[in-house]
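USER: For my understanding, would you kindly supply a protein sequence with its structure tokens?

ASSISTANT:
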Amino acid sequence: MQATTTFFVGLLTLLLGLLAMTPLRAQSQENGSYPVQKRLTLATTRLPESKAQLRDFIRRRARQVIKQEESPSQLQAEFTLPRQLLPALDSVADRLGYQHENNLNAQDLTAHRQQLADEVATEAALLRRLEDQLAGTLAAADRPALQQQATAAETRLRTLRREITSYQAHDSLAYVVVRLYDEVSFPNGNHKISFVNMPGVEYGYLRLDNPKPGLTSMAYRGYAIKYHFTRGKSYFNLGVYKPTTSNKTDSAFVNELFVINFGQDFYPHNFGRGRRRYLNLYTSYQVGGFILTRNDDQRNEFIPNLNLGLGLELLKTRHVLLDNKASYFIPLYKRSRDLRGLLYQASFSFVF
């Protein structure tokens, strides 16, 4: 009975020893043994070519490929790289596409490595003491328990030494995580649309190309409410434009344009992509329509319209947007010539 009890005590000691080493092994598996870690997230409109370049770099330069997964819309890879080749990786990343993320993290592992060395010394001393006891004179009932303790100490010691060796081998390496995705499929890097509650006001000035005497003014100006509902700059605007020159005598004279539009803005690939604080260039379109009102209120009508334009964000923060753009205003009806022209809009919006 006593021998059985001693055996189970020794077995429990072994299991506890192995469990004690689990955090250390998990830390190694979580890349904690690499003093330098780099994470890249890249967007490209030329996914097949960019994939080929990244695969070629990994094949030629990576010390070890931990994981590499591909789909029609992205490539994800984790690999180790000699630290002196990190500038070469940055150079390749510049050619692959736009960098949404480029983080380099360095950590000082000296204290942890010293802790491992102290644990090795402790376990080695414990193992020597147990081996000395086993080499001496022991009662037969005590030997199994000591043997189990010695086995557990030897296992812990081997694990610690392997981890120290791993840290030493990783001193000159960086652990790299790269994600390359198709910007056409994932404009924001994922499937999710980022909604925002961003109202604002807008001033507009429409100068007609071919104003018709007695029918239209040379220009119209007015104000609108503008409401952004996605961070990708999708919005609605609703406003009223009045003629700059008054005409009360001609009954067919257009004295008001009540405008309702939906619009989107798109940032170019080579001018900051909307991420700068100042002077973000973009292209835009608006589709919708306007209610045309005449002096006699007899021939009012709704006319669809399309605007194509170019804009510049003067100031952009997380909470405020100061924006202006010029577009060509195109009424989509048979007398388009009388109302088409150049439209200038300036707006101020804020996160509510």
Notes: Residues 1-30, 187-191 have pLDDT under 50 and may be disordered. The helical segments are 2-29, 47-61, 86-96, 110-135, 143-169. Residues 41 and 101 are 5 Å apart (CA to CA).
